[in-house]
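This part of the workshop introduces the protein records we will be handling. Backbone structure tokens are a discrete shorthand for how the chain folds in space. Once this layout is familiar, the rest of the handout is easier to follow. The record below serves as our worked example for the rest of this section.
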Amino acid sequence: MNLSRVNIYSFDIEEELKKLPQKPGVYIMHDKHDTIIYVGKAINLKNRVRQYFQSSRNLTPKIQQMVTHIQYFEYIITDSELEALVLESNLIKEHRPKYNTMLKDDKNYPYIKVTTNEPYPRVLFARQRGKDKAKYFGPYTSSKSIKDTIELMRKIYFIRTCNRNLPKDIGKERPCLYYHIKQCKAPCQGYISEADYKVSIEKVLEFLNGNYGLLIKDLEDKMKDAAQLMEFEAAAEYRDLLNSVKQITQKQKITSTELEDRDIIALATAGNEAVVQVFFIRNGKLIGRDHFYLTGASQETKSSIITSFIKQFYAGTPFVPRELIIGEGVEEKEILEEWLTSKRGQKVYIKVPVKGEKEKLVELARKNASLVLQQDTEKIKREEAKTIGALKQLSELLEIPGLYRVEAFDISNISGFESVGSMIVYENGKPKRNDYRKFKIKWVKGPDDYASMEEVLTRRFTHGLREEQELKDKMLEEEYGSFNRYPDLILMDGGKGQVNIALKVLNKLNMNMAVCGMVKDDNHRTRGLYYNNQEIPIDKNSEAFKLITRIQDETHRFAIEYHRQLRGKTQVHSILDDIEGIGEKRRRALMKHFQSLDEIKAATMEELAQVENMNKLAAKQVYDFFH
């Protein structure tokens, strides 16, 4: 496998197109910010990549727009088309490119795990299917259903819940509470033999394999026997257990006489949004369903969307069924089947039914997908109004075209102790938490928010300029963080003072960016924005105002959270500890004498010198620290 290396600053697309190999592989499109905007695979890289840059090529508007943003591309040669498909799926999941059709939900479905590799097996909830000798059942779509089933198995068959190493630890500790409430037979004490315990485990395995009849009959018999003996409390317990079993088994709706594992997949689309509904059938029973949102589906064919979904969903799930029953044909059916087969370890089939029971199931899944999409249309519109719409309003209010990335900063301290700065990032009206950054104030002593803010901004943009230079020097051979991605707008929590601090830093670094501050009223509530040396009123009911409020709250939260972490590490600390020559005794004496930190700050050197254990030199150091 070979990866091409490019220099973004000397990349000639026409020349590089001529160098493309006629081999299978994956191509990666970058924009001017070095962001990956599209990932695709090809049987022949030369033919496929060139198609994007041919004006005569019939490209969709979405792809045409994507091409205008391509600054350079790179590619990875693979040994086969199957290897290219796997690599494409991994890269899409890792980088989530803007112009790929993306699966929003990245869900992992849980399993029931029976540790049959242990002498005294346990029944556990498992998030992933491990490579061990345990037996796994599922995956299931309902975590609650799994937990109910496990609890039921423990009550009926007295399965242990502890993680003791048996039989090695037998007799080392007293039996736990479950023994005393008669839900465990205490194998940890040797009260049940390994052979008898395994009989119970075999019954658990029968139940999990779908053989419910034996357990139901057994519980019915015990309930009747207890009632005849007038042991009504025991009979009531068996009745409750029986009802629990019936409730769980009723969830396993029979959908097929063929005891196969299959997923029923159907699609509904509306504009840029798409919903895929999946029915999960295991051993011929419908165990659950789920729906998944995909973005970037505008002007994509249904076949292309389903293909993207299959690649992304089954790349992330440990279980692959024997059959995928889908509503539309998929692209590259054979290579997808080969890939899924390699993941399952057995032949996997992708089928498009045209009649019969399977076709009815696909149609049912499609109706469910349409219903979800219909119900969520208004929700999607509200979300867009809160994010993209709000950012557009702010862009128009400040007359900043193309507003996309906003960075906001805050300083948090308690009387100057452990001052910290926070940087939060919003892109397209949504928080981009991977780009959040924390700063522990290093250059500023004492409580000085303006100086602390100057330090944070200086460090943030100096780091960005350094990353930018390293990108040039190292020709993209290393990955970098978010510092070299600059904001379209810097949002300061304060007004004119903080804006001037930011402009001072930018001028010093020869950088030009829009800086906006929040003007507060007498109750410390934002009443307007300070931009370009003037206060701009803002409608408090507008989405732009609500977005600014969310950014402001998030900035405070992030800074305070970081400050709380530092305080948790250092426990109790006083700003007085940061003054040279002031130890624990003098600190206590100062606090006892003046009662508050404000009084210490306001004291003269003579007043400070009168405190117990203080001398003139120590008094001068305290005075100079605050003044």
Remarks:
- The chain has 19 helices and 22 strands.
- The longest strand covers residues 285-295.
- The chain has five domains: 2-100, 111-210, 262-375, 405-570, 575-626.
